[in-house]
Design a protein that fits this description.
Elements (H helix, E strand, L loop, with lengths): L16 H20 L7 H11 L10 H12 L5 H24 L3 H12 L2 H7 L5 H21 L4 H16 L8 H7 L5 H24 L8 H12 L4 H8 L16 H7 L5 H7 L6 H4 L12 H18 L1 H16 L11 H4 L15 H16 L1 H4 L3 H17 L2 H20 L9 H5 L1 H11 L7 H5 L3 H8 L4
Helix pairs in contact: 1-4, 2-3, 3-4, 4-5, 4-7, 7-8, 7-22, 7-24, 8-10, 9-10, 9-22, 11-16, 13-16, 17-22, 21-22, 21-24
């Protein structure tokens, strides 16, 4: 793949024109989409954040303080849902245009077309960016931030455009979701390779945004979703599921050695804590292999989220000290099942018409389908339905996974700081989703769908190597060395 997108001629010098052209193109396309699905796609998470904005003293959505203030400033003062949705689309268009414009100026035209058509204008990607959820904005911002980190390390300096993009992308990449904090590290570490001016401005940007988020969290105490209890409760409920083979062994205990069935699969303390409000049979009834939502949100379910803090602590403690080790194969199988369900885009998102259910529940001045573009909406729905039918191929982040593996291996072999700084945070993200995800939601892996926007330019400008040592130069024809030096930072 890499050989088809390499640049062997000098970069184009066209100033900001490509960026503004691409930004206008993407903004126009997203605006048409938003007009068709006005005021945007809304779901239950949208209801939660809107209710928190409207009544911050009595309600918490479980989202971060950055997402709260983003919606508060854009919806709270206008009462119109389309304002935060449209603003997110404009921001995403700008961050995507920056990467694509750079590809244009570097003559990476195939990379540009792929990024534009397969990612920036992909039907489901536009859908996610136009939904009042933080996931689309987070995925684009993380790609934009990592791209600037790689580019600045390659150049050993941060241009004004890079500094501006870091300032725009950083709050959404690092603070929009709890797992985004890992993206602070590559930005700070990258300063080691930057010149004094670039280092100073980068650290100022990081410091200002960190201080602003900290101050905001003191003014408004957001409560993000717990990490350990959902995992412990979801997996312990899975360990409690009835299995025909276990029942057979109970009928014929001589089939196993005595010590095989001697210890219970789940500790009595866990059973007692989980069954405090509802019997274990109800937990078994509402446990879905790929979603924990039924255990918490179903009105007739066990509603494990209502357990006392003491019972939650018991479930977590018993999971890490006993239940996990008695059921390690089942735990790993469950992790694979949830992760692959997400990677194959099994989890969906709110219906395009679900706003009719949301708007009456909030004090919004937005109108549903204000522009009445019925034919355009019907056409876009057909495009989305076709894309959905092939989601296991068109939506899945497998290309991002493969490029991440390439960057990690190449970065370690060649001690390439740029590649390591963009790959290690994404490896941590991958591991976090695999270990702690309690729902097979595709949106959790959306940053890996946008990751090729970072990795493909890194491949194009890093293969063959940009810094040739003596042995490499001796084996490369003189004419080829001239083409390679064009890509040096």
């Amino acid at each position: 793949m890499a050989s088809t997108i390499l640049a062997s001629s000098p970069p184009l010098r066209q100033g900001p024109a490509p960026f503004f052209m691409l930004w206008a193109l993407l903004t126009g396309a997203y605006a048409v989409w938003l007009m068709a699905f006005w005021p945007g796609v809304l779901g239950e998470d949208s209801v939660a954040i809107l209710q928190e904005v409207q009544n911050p003293d009595a309600f918490r959505s479980g989202k971060t303080v950055v997402w709260y203030y983003f919606v508060k400033w854009l919806y709270g003062w206008t009462g119109r849902v389309e304002v935060p949705v449209g603003s997110a689309l404009v921001l995403c268009a700008g961050m995507l245009a920056r990467i694509l414009a750079w590809c244009w100026t570097q003559r990476l035209h195939k990379t540009l077309l792929f990024g534009l058509l397969a990612i920036a204008l992909a039907p489901h990607m536009v859908y996610f960016m136009g939904t009042l959820y933080p996931d689309g904005l987070f995925a684009v911002a993380s790609a934009a931030l990592l791209f600037e980190v790689w580019l600045c390390v390659q150049r050993r300096a941060a241009s004004s455009a890079s500094l501006l993009m870091v300032a725009v992308a950083l709050p959404f990449a690092a603070f929009l979701r709890p797992n985004g904090l890992v993206f602070l590290a590559p930005v700070v570490i990258a300063c080691w390779w930057l010149d004094a001016r670039s280092r100073l401005w980068t650290l100022i940007i990081v410091s200002v945004w960190s201080a602003a988020v900290f101050a905001g969290s003191q003014v408004h105490k957001s409560t993000t979703q717990e990490t350990q209890f959902p995992l412990a409760a979801f997996e312990t409920a899975g360990f409690l599921q009835k299995r025909a083979m276990n029942e057979l062994w109970a009928l014929y205990p001589h089939m196993n050695d005595p010590w095989v069935l001697q210890k219970p699969k789940v500790s009595p303390a866990s059973v007692e804590a989980l069954s405090r409000k509802h019997p274990i049979e109800k937990i078994q009834q509402y446990r879905d292999p790929a979603y924990w939502d039924m255990l918490v949100f179903h009105p007739d379910g066990p509603q494990l989220g209502a357990l006392s803090d003491m019972d939650k602590q018991t479930v977590v403690r018993e999971f890490w000290t006993y239940n996990l080790w008695q059921n390690l194969p089942d735990f790993i199988a469950s992790r694979v099942n949830v992760f692959v369900s997400a990677a194959l885009a099994q989890g969906g998102f709110p219906a395009s018409s679900y706003a009719t259910n949301v708007l009456p529940r909030v004090s919004s001045q937005s109108s549903y389908r204000l522009w009445h573009l019925d034919q355009l909406e019907h056409f876009l729905k057909k495009v989305h339905a076709k894309s959905y039918a092939w989601r296991w191929l068109l939506w899945t982040p497998w290309l991002g996974f493969m490029l991440l593996a390439w960057a990690s291996i190449r970065g370690m072999r060649r001690a390439d700081a740029g590649l390591l700084l963009i790959s290690i945070p994404m490896i941590i993200q991958w591991g976090g989703v695999f270990v702690f995800s309690i729902a097979g939601e595709y949106r959790y892996l959306l940053p890996f769908f946008t990751l090729p926007l970072v990795m493909l330019p890194a491949i194009a400008k890093g293969y063959p190597p940009t810094h040739l040592d003596t042995r490499t130069q001796a084996n490369v024809p003189r004419a080829a060395q001239g083409a390679l030096l064009v890509t040096a930072p």
